[in-house]
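Q: Hand in one record:
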Amino acid sequence: MITRRALVGGSLSAAAATLLPEAAHGSGRRDEAATRYGRVRGRREDGIVKFLGVPYATPPLGRLRFRAPKPPKCWRGVRDTVDFPNPAFQAAGGEMGPTGNGRMPAPSEDCLYLNIWTPAADHERRPVMFYNHGGGYMIGSGSATGQDGTHLAQLHDVVVVESNHRLGLLGYLFLGDLAHGDYAANTGMLDILAALRWTSENIENFGGDPDNIMVWGESGGGAKTGAVYTMPAAARLFHKASIESAAPLRLATREGATARAERTLGLLGLTTADIPKLYDIPAARLLEVQQSEAANGEAPWGDPGALPGFGAFVDGRVIPRQPFADGAAPFSAHKPLMVGTCRDETVFFSLFGPPDIFNIDEAGLRSALGGTYQGAELDRIISTFHRSRPDATPAQLYFAITTSPIRRDAIKIAEAKAAQHAAPVFMYQLAYPDPTLVPGTNFPIGSPHASDIPLKFANVGPDERPGKRATARHMSALWAGFARYGRPTAPHVPQWPAYTPKKRATMWLDAQCRIVNDPDRPERLFWSS
């Protein structure tokens, strides 16, 4: 469950990513493409064509709230798709709505649209990179600046697709075991499935290859990607995947989702007999209830509690099994996989509070960890990390220790995939040591959670440090290479071996990339014991 973690994925891009120059809406030459439902017109600029706000489903309004998405209605003529669409309903962020920077309109229930960035709307059959945005199932958009697909499409001749899909209560309130009727499970994931199906059926007209689709995502988007990897209905729609800064070994259970629904009804002053009244409650009121408890979102890693937040869950049909806790899904066995983390994940979560944690001493380290570890266990974990990182300060040890469970579970995913002996899995760590200091401290930010977003999308401007630009060049090329070939390959980067339990080869992503076998071995052994 998350509180401030609901900011996951995209928040850092607003704070630290280089903003892309945005051409005036409506400028540039218009290019057209056909879909199964009608023709659309995008705008050509920055050397590519952008189709923004393409409908992939009927707006989930009125009696379609809490139901599986329906195909879009056909239209006559040509539909302009030249502006970013409404984000899913959520608290408006810095890029959303009339008080934002103008990039996106206000959040809305009418959100089932996708964006396409393509070198040309021809029939060249380029690799398709279908990205799931982050935000812990609670916030985010397929239009955020840091994950803009312009440079990725431009530099690497790929097609980038990003969808908006229902989030939070509107995406994951499960009523199916509380009332009769057509109440779907995992509607937010069904939206992603619908967008993926639309992509498979239509992307050839946008210059993409429907037989070469990569699904990928960071944080909450990585958890969504892990869920897609575990959805039988998605199996024929994609061909490889990348789970980034998330380790969804286990999702919430159907019983947990039902318990959350019962709790939600109580907060609304309703009983199960009043469920039909949910159609008439304004979305703003539902958002108030969603945010009224500290535990209102599903973390993209760890074990969900008995009363989970809103997020993907094992319902028995849409998602029939746990993603990786009991091995990888057999119907995805032949799909290559990438998995990895940032070196300093949890630095991100302390950027929004007092800077005290960045200045702790040894006693402060023990105090900061004391809520999670006690007694001999606390002594052992501190001792292990001291031996593994002898030059680390207490603050650096704190972030290494709190980051390590995320990496531990990423390793478990890689082990589960390697055990299938079918398709390769590739492990990485983003280790670029960004020297930018956390405000009010002498602590360098390093590679925190979400710092990978502008790097892998090549959205790093010419004024950034040379090391950061080089890391972005390597990372974006490797991810595009994986999309193209099913193995991550790029110029001026060492050959990336598949991960195996014997060597545990890991790509160390930096200005100078290198392969490290079994990095931080004492830490891995601590968790395995």
